[in-house]
Amino acid sequence: MNNRKLSVLEMHRISVDEFKQSRKTPLVIVLDDVRSMYNVGSVFRTADAFRMESILLCGITARPPHPEIHKTALGAEDSVDWEYFADTHEAVRKLHEKGYTVLAIEQVVGSTMLQDFKPMPNCRYAIVMGNEVKGVKQTVVDMCDGCIEIPQFGTKHSLNVSTAAGIVMWEMMKKINLN
Q1: Between vectors from CA 103 to CA 101 and to CA 108, what angle results, nearest 5°?
Q2: What is the tens place of the pLDDT at every residue in 47-92?
Q3: In the chain, fewer beta carbons within 10 Å around the N or the C end?
Q4: How far apart are CA 172 and CA 26, in angstroms?
Q5: Sign, Cα dihedral of 98, 133, 150, 108
Q6: CA 164 to CA 160: how far, in whole Å?
Q7: Sign of torsion over alpha carbons 60, 125, 71, 81
């Protein structure tokens, strides 16, 4: 068995320009007051890996360019489209106006477990990821079309926001991507 690691050239990654022109997974990531720039950078990097449509940075969430975002994004902040909103509510309103189904990633009464989520055909989705301590604001949850919960089986009640975003992006990509 040959388990030689591939070189960067052997991976045949696309350029930033090719990424910008490529078909995207129809999923927008909304970051609601995410305070860690390393988490923001990590979300950018994962969004690049799975060709997410865009990221909306809201409230206190930091924006590129910034060295701490770049440290974990490794340039993905240049490939993934993003927009800033001072208020997450405004971002959710704009997504609704554009016809998106907006889902909070949160533990709520009546949430849908991630593995049970069944996307509607030809539907455009956005997911809202919350603050590292407080999660998605209740007023934002109230505006959403539903909530998805990641099942957990340990003693902790939550995951790191960038870890949770990665899990959800991967699962959503598998379910909604038309590759």
Answers
A1: 145
A2: 999 999 999 999 999 999 999 999 999 999 999 999 999 999 999 9
A3: N
A4: 9
A5: negative
A6: 6
A7: negative
